[in-house]
Amino acid sequence: MAKIEFRNVDKSFGQVAALRDVTFSCADRDIVVVFGPPGAGKSTLLRVLAGLEDIDRGEIYLNGRAMNDLPIHRRNVAMAFENYALYPHFKVRANLEFPLKAPAVRMAAAQRRTRLERVAKLLEIEELLDRYPHQLSGGQRQRISLGRALIRDADATLLDEPIAHLDARLRSALRGDLRLYLRESGATTLYATPDFQEGFAIASKVIVLIGGVVRQISSPDEVFSRPADAHVAALIGDPAMNLIPVRADGRLDLGEQSSPLPVRINGLAQVGIRPGDIGLVDSTRSGVVVKGRVTLVERVGSALVINLDTGGRALAAKVDAPSMPVTLDDIVGLVFRWDAAHFFGQDATRIDIRGDFVTTDGRL
Amino acid sequence: MSAAKIGGNSSLRYVVVLLWAVFALFPLYWILITAFKLPKDIFRGPFYLPGVDFFPTTNSFRYLLTTGSGDFFHGLGNSVLFATTSGIFSVLFGAFAAYGLARYEYRLGPMKNDDISFFIVSQRMMPPIVAVIALFVMYRWLGLLDTYFGMILIYTWYNLPLSVYLLTDFIKRIPPDIEYAAAIDGYDRVRQILFITVPLAFPGIAAAFFLAFIFTWNDFLLALMLTFQNAKTLPVVIAAWSANMDPRWWLLSAAGIVAVIPPVAALSLLDRLMERRERMG
Fold first, then answer.
1. Are A208 and A22 in contact (CB under 8 A)?
2. Do A72 and B180 touch (CB under 8 A)?
3. How far away is chain B from the Cα of A7, in angstroms, using its nearest Cα?
């Protein structure tokens, strides 16, 4: 039996459709990341499950129970709000214990203490327990809000960008710990985030939501390696995937230049190439078809991100260790790794192809 | 804008402040010393300094506690009772109305929430003297003249609009997500309001109560028109002492001092609550 199930759920605010025909289900103990750009309807999806918003059409089931007409307090969901929503008149400790003291729970004091200690340790908030929310920083408040959602046994744990406002160190540390914690506590989680790295690190399953429409439901690896359409592909990757239109004559449209494609596909409209799948070579080398002028060189961690202009089209390349020095305004040759390219049709949906590819200069 | 810019040089500023202080405080001072004067000191006067141009005496207070005590304590008790109960009722009913106006959307004919709010506040805009004749006739017909119930009812009516207005604003400032959080944590609507909304709106509730208390305490007109003996309040009792041919200023002053204490205490308490609210952010 599915733990959480949405069937044809519509929700709009006035003229604006926030969720359109959303259908999905997830199993017990799944960590489902609801991923999408800001304004995609991620928060709304969480809020309709919690009952904070009524849906216009469709059905929502949690643990086999229809949620549609159930009041919020009887749904047994936990939620970390994007704006924290801490109780300002309670100390942190009381904020965290509040769900454990609810009429339907009434957990014994000793048990509450164990829970509290565990959550406090996970979120590094042991020293904050006797403070009031207004004495905390934004990041600290967010951790309390997250803690209040994690401390209890709920049928669904809803986390709305729960670590967005933490500093970088804590955020990356929490990604792993949070996943482990959710696994151990056996929680079924819906986790909304616009950050694919954070989301994909924690997810057992990803729902890509764009404009209130579910575009793809699959494993994080699958979303990364086989994005369902060009819109999904454009959201994933740092920097984002290069989406290059295809001309009527079947060549890649690079502004003033063009490049032949290694395959001929009917209805092909766009080719997606990740920055990491573009190689840079000496522009004078034989067989170089596409050249670009370097417009920006940026160090991102151990790699270099290089922005290129091919004469009216901007491309991004990401190289770990450049085989040659690259400086601003250099003209370099571009090599595309076609076996890692993605092909999209007229309606932007993915076209799967099989077969072998060659690079434009015959090698990688 | 800094204070220095307004006042020019600082000594001028002190002079202005001092003048204002004398203007504001002299009546209080005058009442205070008059309460300790003998009639001869008042009518031979004006005397300003106790112990220098007159000898202070507690005669007036002794009168309040002995001969005049019946009327005085009757009025004082009624004032305390009406101010407290009408304060409680106007806050209680006001809070119900305010919660509804703050959290739900209503339509009453062409009126939406803001119009309903304005309609309620507008009840309090006319001076009570406009209504008092009609109220007298109504009360006579209903048999409510000079009754405790009638006075508590009229003061609750009198204070309710302001209480609704004030509390709506306070409740609106509590983010609904905090109540939602309590709902998600497993608390039904009644418990959300008891554990979350009421404590957070408490400074507003206290402010509404004290304002209602002060308004009722200071009212003269309604009590004058709608009471005779049984339900008369302290201002009416005090006024009666000067209504005769010989105004007994010493008694008026002594009773006035007692009458000033509760509103001052209420205001300073209110002030401290507001301060706490600012600190809580």
1. no
2. yes
3. 22
